[in-house]
């Protein structure tokens, strides 16, 4: 369980995020500039907030980004262009990329999981957009951190590929029991993933529900307003 009560201010934007995320897939929805990415960056340690951040009863707010039990996938720039596919994943195990045999096996397994083992000696510039994102998912897998944050890393992919990536992350989330939190502008993606949804408005979490409410059966007034219904 990831629990937080965090304050953050940037000029006129005053955020106060309070809540918790459990194992499973949660999508952060909300209009542009409402503070979805800011929450993700505070959790990931890329912005400094004040308050509390606890993971499994442990205070992790004072931890630097790389010390937190978290992997973050950004919108882009998740891979090192000068490193091979293999090295891009190996660096997730250890920055030196000097790996034990067991660690090398982990890299191979992760590459197999994302179906890139046959491309391990290629460089990112030789891959398609979807393959590049799969490299970053493979690195997230070898890092074996219990929390995965996604800031719309698949938004530039075409719909079929985006769903393939979402399926992969969903599968991994359930297999490894991860707390996965993804910022998205797409209610369709949130429905496709079929986990929890959280609505962010003006730097606050204003509603939380199952993704199914987006279908409009058991209506949630907050999400109805967000959808303009
Ligand atoms: N470090 C920062 N630098 C610049 N602006 C910031 C910073 N932190 C917060 N903001 C401001 O905070 C507000 C929320 O931004 P944020 O990117 O979190 O929203 P968002 O919901 O993710 O938006 P979008 O959907 O457009 O990506 C914006 O008004 C933004 O300008």
From TrEMBL:
Keywords: ATP-binding, Cell inner membrane, Cell membrane, Membrane, Nucleotide-binding, Translocase, Transport. Residues 1-227 form the ABC transporter domain. Gene3D superfamilies: P-loop containing nucleotide triphosphate hydrolases. The keyword Amino-acid biosynthesis does not apply. It comes from the Bacteria. The keyword Repressor does not apply. InterPro entries: AAA+_ATPase, ABC_SmlMolc_Importer, ABC_transporter-like_ATP-bd, P-loop_NTPase. One of its GO terms (molecular function) is ATP hydrolysis activity. SMART domains: AAA. This is Thiamine transport system ATP-binding protein.
């Amino acid at each position: 369980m990831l629990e937080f009560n965090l304050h953050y201010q940037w000029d006129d934007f005053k955020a106060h995020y309070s809540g918790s995320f459990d194992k499973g897939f949660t999508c952060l929805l909300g209009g542009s500039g409402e503070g979805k990415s800011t929450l993700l960056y505070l959790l990931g340690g890329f912005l400094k907030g004040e308050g509390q951040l606890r993971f499994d009863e442990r205070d992790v707010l004072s931890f630097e980004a790389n010390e937190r039990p978290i992997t973050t996938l950004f919108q882009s720039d998740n891979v090192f262009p000068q490193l091979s596919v293999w090295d891009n994943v190996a660096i997730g195990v250890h920055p030196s990329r000097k790996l034990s045999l067991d660690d090398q096996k982990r890299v191979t397994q992760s590459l197999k999981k994302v179906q890139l083992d046959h491309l391990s000696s290629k460089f990112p510039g030789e891959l398609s957009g979807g393959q590049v994102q799969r490299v970053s998912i493979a690195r997230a897998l070898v890092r074996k951190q219990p929390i995965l944050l996604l800031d719309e890393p698949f938004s530039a992919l075409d719909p079929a590929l985006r769903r393939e990536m979402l399926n992969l992350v969903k599968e991994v989330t359930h297999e490894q029991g991860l707390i996965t939190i993804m910022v998205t502008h797409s209610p369709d993606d949130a429905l496709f993933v079929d986990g929890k949804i959280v609505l962010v408005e003006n730097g606050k979490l204003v509603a939380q529900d199952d993704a199914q409410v987006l279908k409009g059966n058991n209506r949630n007034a907050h999400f109805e307003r967000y959808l303009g219904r």
